[in-house]
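INTERNAL AUDIT FORM
Audit reference: QA-55
Scope: verify that the stored structure record matches its stored sequence.
Auditor: D.O.
Record contents follow.
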Amino acid sequence: MITENTIAAISTPLGRGGIAVIRVSGKDAIAIAERVFRSSHGGEVRKFPSHTVHHGLVVAPNSQEPLDEVMLTVFRAPNSYTGEDVVEISCHGGVFVSQKVLEAVLEAGARLADPGEFTKRAFLNGKIDLVQAEAVADLIQASTERSHQEAFQQLRGGLSDQINAVRNSLVDMLALMELELDFSQEDVEFLDRQEIEERLRRSIEELDKLIASYQRGRFLREGAKITIVGRPNVGKSSLLNALLGMERAIVDETPGTTRDAIETQLDIKGVLFRVIDTAGLRQAKNRIEKKGIAITEFHIEDADVVLFLLDASEGVTRADEKIWQQVERLSQKRREMFPAKIIIVGNKIDLGNQLTKGSFDPEMGKWPLVLVSAKTLTGIPQLNETIFKAVFDERWERGDAVITNVRHLQALQKARQHLGFALETLKQGLSTEFAVVDIKGALEQLGAIVGQTTPEEVLDRIFEQFCIGK
């Protein structure tokens, strides 16, 4: 699907740098380049072979004023990122010069690209599927080693291959089932019910694995949220600074120093964690403290991991027990499918330790206990390891396909529901005709993930989240 318009945009970040790249894509890309590029060896752009680089000048198409010394790279259709003719002009970095080169290209007949339009064209021209297109955005946004690896795997088709394997199995089965319906009066059986049910079960198992992987994928894409909770002056801000290895929060002996939540980021084993240091939970004395405590309660509800902080030198106090009841209630409130994990952290062991599992409430005792000193950093490596294990199952392997965004999750859940209905239909001895309807529904949802049955407005919403130039 080669589109009529030829588009252009600056593909590199705005600002000073060694080079900036202006990308041009469309049926007139070569002709537009011809109007603005003057080769230093006298060659004509229309005669340049694909995948070659050429030195020369960019000029304003009307005045012929030289604008910059550049390198021009030609990629001819269909062997380009978008599947169209593509020209990339590498000019000197800098806001002004790159903007002047872009203006020259637009003056020569290109249109300014919409956000994500180059990648959308790659999708529409069959160079990549929708999962791979979304992986491009994830790869750009990746901030840790594992989020990069996961996005790169999806870009290479790992998730698409797994979804398409399920789709192909269902399509093969559906074809035989519909053929059997066509010959129903002749009593011809291409697949017995037991085999259909077994194939459906295997497909459901594959979808269940992918659905269960969403939590891991979300952590890799967005980061897991850690909320540090405890009564005032147990060392929440000190613990935050110890985890970060730097002073991020103000530390003071005065209870209530932290009035608002402080958010920062932590990288543990290549995984991003967003750490929230909250106001101490207690009876509010004024309107400001009341707001701070309300914010704390929100972050407990929204957490993936709650670090419930105690003063190990004092043991479990009555105030701690009251706060624990709030933590237990709030941490399980919002996420039925993925409730928060809790880690009990005993701080200030440099002053002594009065904490044992036997001194805990039975419900508190089922969660791991880690003893640390935020002051001397004793136990901090063990706490990092416990945090990591709380959100990453040891059984997960690098290379396993995972779901990283909610659009995929919702489509998989709907597909799984359709297959469950189809299986139940067969178990009840009803006509396979009813099962066929649900199998088609499942195929439509799986097709929406990879972009084969995705409505145009959904595509627009996906690609408008990209940066201009990609």
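Auditor finding: record pair retrieved intact. The first strand starts at residue 7 and ends at 10.
Action required: none
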